[in-house]
Amino acid sequence: MRYVFIGDATYALMLYLLYATDEMLQNTTFFVGNNCGACNLEKKIIMSPICPFTNKELIKYRIKCLKYRKQLKEAEIFAQDHVFFAPALIDNLPYNVIEDCPNFFSIREERKEITFKPTFSALWYNFKVGRIYQRYAGHNPWCRKRIISSTKDEELFIEKSLPYERISLVELWHNAPDSKRNLISKAFSLPPLNSIKKDIVIFSQPLQEDAHLQDEEIRNIFLPFVEKFGSDNILVKLHPRDRYDYKKAFPGISTLVTKAPQQLLDIMGIRFKTAITVCSSAVSSLNEDCDIIWLGAEIDERIVKAYGNIKNPRQ
């Protein structure tokens, strides 16, 4: 393992694939969870969930990850350090943290580095979960660099005198050779671009799983907009964990089944006139002239409980 990616968000995976050189991509081992497990990647290791989340299972998981320790020590690591399997793999190894979404670190600005006292209980706790557990977003002494794409995060790290590297996803895509573009398209199973040509897009969310909404409740949320715009004019950009059947609920509607994040579609030049969502952050990457219909988590208290009071990024 010369290079290692540890993460489970398709955005972070896209960022790494754009950031990495050809030599890095040819020599990268990907440790991913179920969200990225379906992506087409070579040298992919799918990390199973910790279930149940008990001391016994945590210890078993930690011991299981120790078999990769020697190889990880010799690799350059790029990671989402807050995903459940990252602390067990990284522990106290040097690594670079990758943003989970634009402004990821600014959102977690309130986090402080956790102090450590070398007591038996503290040492045992660190062994059980890994030393960067609850020290995520680079708030630990082992994070070498923070890879970011936003001005807001850059200002934060300048203020805190923390090492970072700011990149432009648009520039990386436009400067990428065809071989890298094809690799990224294959990784996310992107369909032909002409099949994505719709004026209206719905950004779905896993409202069944996260907020426990019933099928009819989800249908009622979007029905007024389907009736207004017409199902033939609408594309549903499915969230990777959304299992709701939009085609059954709205005959004639199109769905985009891909793991690709909206940011990738945007830098590829795919534009929409209107976007509809409950509270998906995907709208933050849309073209400025796109009309955003932001319903808000407040339409149902169960959604607020699942996601919080997320604000429209355009306001």
Taking all Cα atoms into account, the compactness measure Rg is 20 Å
Terminal CA distance reads 44 Å
- Annotation, overall tally of beta strands: 12
What is the tally of helical segments? 16
Largest sheet: 7 strands, parallel
Q: How confident overall, as mean pLDDT?
A: 90
Derived from helix and strand composition plus strand pairing, the structural class reads: alpha/beta
* Secondary-structure element pattern, one letter each: EHHEHEHHEHEHHEHEHHEHHEHEHEEH
Strand percentage:
15-25%
What this model shows, in words?
It is globular and about 65 Å long. Helix 9 (151-160) links the parallel strand 6 (143-148) and strand 7 (164-166). Helices cover 37% and strands 16% of the residues. Strands 3-2-1-4-5-6-7 form a seven-stranded parallel beta sheet. Strands 10-9-8-11-12 form a five-stranded parallel beta sheet, covered by helices on one side. It is an alpha/beta fold and 315 residues long. The protein has helices at 10-19, 22-26, 34-37, 55-65, 69-73, 86-90, 104-107, 120-129, 151-160, 169-174, 178-187, 207-211, 215-229, 246-249, 262-267, 301-307, and strands at 3-7, 28-32, 44-46, 76-79, 95-98, 143-148, 164-166, 200-203, 234-237, 254-256, 274-277, 291-294. The longest helix has 15 residues, at 215-229.
